[in-house]
Amino acid sequence: MLAAGDGNRDIFMLKLSSTGNMNIFNSPRPPKWSASLCDFGDIGTCCITCWLPCITFGQIAEIVDQGQSSCIKQGCVYGLLMLCSCHCLLSCVYREKLRAKFGLPPEPCNDCCVHFCCEACALCQEHAELKNRGFDPSKGWIGPPNAPPPSMPPTMRR
């Protein structure tokens, strides 16, 4: 790393990467959401989310929990919370977990505000984020993306 300066103030900073390329920026770009809040890319997911948001939420929760909770269980809990209009509280917790997992910023505002103001848009954005990161929420948790397939036990022979 090279730096030039006059005492307390650096004029510029160069950082050489392992490939020999110079980077004049100190840190990499912060991660961003791959889909905007109002990006309705997958019409199928949007329709399911508008009419049966408990399905989309269950799929997201299963992936975020890495298979520790099932889509059906989380979807049912979400559906029961919809009866008393408290479902936003559960979904904002999972949005926070998703953001923490991938280092995403709280955009456009904090998680509970996003889910309270536009629940369907928030669920669609989270679903799209998981798809863009290599997960398929409709299939459930099958391991991290690009993981080698589970090995099959050897067959028994006589």
From TrEMBL:
Residues 138-158 are annotated as: Disordered. Residues 145-158 have a biased composition (Pro residues). InterPro entries: PLAC_motif_containing. It comes from the Eukaryota. Pfam families: PLAC8. PANTHER family: DUF614 FAMILY PROTEIN-RELATED (PTHR15907). This is Plant cadmium resistance 2. It comes from Theobroma cacao (Cacao).
